[in-house]
Amino acid sequence: MHLSAFGKIASVSVLLVLGEGQLLAQEADQAAREVEQTLHLTPDIENGRKAFALCTVCHRPEGWGSDDGTYPQIAGQISSVIIKQLADIRARNRDNPTMRPFTSPQLLGGPQEIADVAAYISRLPMDPYNGVGPGFDLEQGKRVYQKECADCHGERGEGDEGEHVPAIRGQHYRYLVRQFDWIRMGKRRNADPKMVKQIKRFSTRDELTVLDYVSRLKPPEEKLGQPGWHNPDFPKYSRRPMSRSRFQPPPRPSPPLRPQGFERPERPEPPPRFRPNDME
Q1: 90-99, Cβ contacts within 8 angstroms, sequence gap of 24 or more
Q2: Angle, helices 79-90/3-39, rounded to nearest 10 degrees
Q3: What is the mean pLDDT of residues 141-153?
Q4: For residues 192 and 184, what is the distance between their CA atoms, to the nearest angstrom?
Q5: Which residue in 1, 52, 171, 199 is a FRET match for 157, CA 20 to 30 A apart?
Q6: DSSP 255-271
Q7: Is 142 among the domain residues?
Q8: 123: domain CATH number?
Q9: For residue 103, pLDDT beyond 90
Q10: What is the pLDDT of residues 196-239, one digit of tens each?
Q11: Partners of residue 224 on adjacent β-strands
């Protein structure tokens, strides 16, 4: 290939990188503006309840998510954290294809609706039995947490409202592991750059033990719901059973049911096999 061709390819590559960087910066700025606007609004809790109906599809009416880590517990989360995450997802500053349609202005609405639903979620009582880790080396996890995490997330994982640092106490262990890995590999683009740099030097043992320890940090009693609590704001919600032992693989799907009145046709008898002795 001619040298000029290499030069053209290099130029195009640089332009693409610059263009992507500008786009990412625009997305972050857009999200930051919406967060700032939303934080100055007075939330309407009743309207937040109506907006939260969208969220029940995945997070269920209680906001407790699932202990297999598919969906996080959002009940009791700091309101400003919820606002920031919704704004980041909507502006594509955080990649979440599952959540993004639900954050669109067509479904969720504008900044006022974000303020309303965030305030409603933050007031929900939390799951008293969130998913926890195996508990093999909690002392190591405690040491790592106090040294590396407590300055930002708080001594008991309570988070920081002013800095939009999430509360991580009472969060499902498997969800914590997945998000930790995504932050470290850069998949969760709205993560604090200081945290990304910090956790890249964590060993596997550091990661798993500290997240196990975090999953066992319990919120204050007044923030916990009663075992089996159902949100009375959604009395007609049909709840699928979600009980499953910790660290067990998901159950194998059941075979599909046949429609009523459907009977499997009987198989015809196979024709008799020809044997030479039959000719005798």
Answers
A1: 90/31, 90/34, 91/27, 91/28, 91/30, 91/31, 91/34, 92/27, 93/24, 93/27, 93/28, 93/30, 93/31, 93/189, 93/190, 94/188, 94/189, 94/190, 95/187, 95/188, 95/189, 98/58
A2: 140
A3: 97
A4: 11
A5: 52
A6: PPPPPTT--PPPPPPPP
A7: yes
A8: 1.10.760.10
A9: yes
A10: 999 999 999 999 999 999 999 999 999 999 999 999 999 999 87
A11: 126
| Total of domains in the chain | 1
With the C-alpha atoms ordered 105, 38, 115, 211, is the resulting torsion angle positive or negative?
Answer: positive
Please indicate, yes or no, if residue 280 is contained in any of the structural domains: no
Instruction: Name the residue with tokens 């405690």.
Output: 142
How many CB atoms neighbour CB 173 within 10 A?
25
Question: What are the distances in angstroms from CA 184 to CA 170, 188, 193?
Answer: 22, 8, 10
Cβ count within 10 A of residue 159: 19
The verdict on residue 191 lying in a domain is yes
In a domain, 247, yes or no: no
DSSP string for 100-155 = HHHHSTTTT-SHHHHHHHHHHHHTSPBPTT------S-HHHHHHHIIIIIHHHH-T
Write down the pTM of the prediction: 0.78
Domain that holds residue 27: 14-223
pLDDT digits (tens, 9 = 90+) for 159-210: 999 999 999 999 999 999 999 999 999 999 899 999 999 999 999 999 999 9
At position 200, the amino acid (one-letter code) is K
Cα–Cα dist 125/74, whole Å: 10
Q: Which residues pair with 160 in a beta bridge?
A: 165
Residue appearing with tokens 């046949």: 258
79's CB contacts (< 8 A; 6+ apart) are 43, 118, 119, 121, 122, 161
Element (H, E) at 79: helix 79-90
The one-letter amino acid at 106 = Q
Classified as helix, coil or strand, 73 is coil
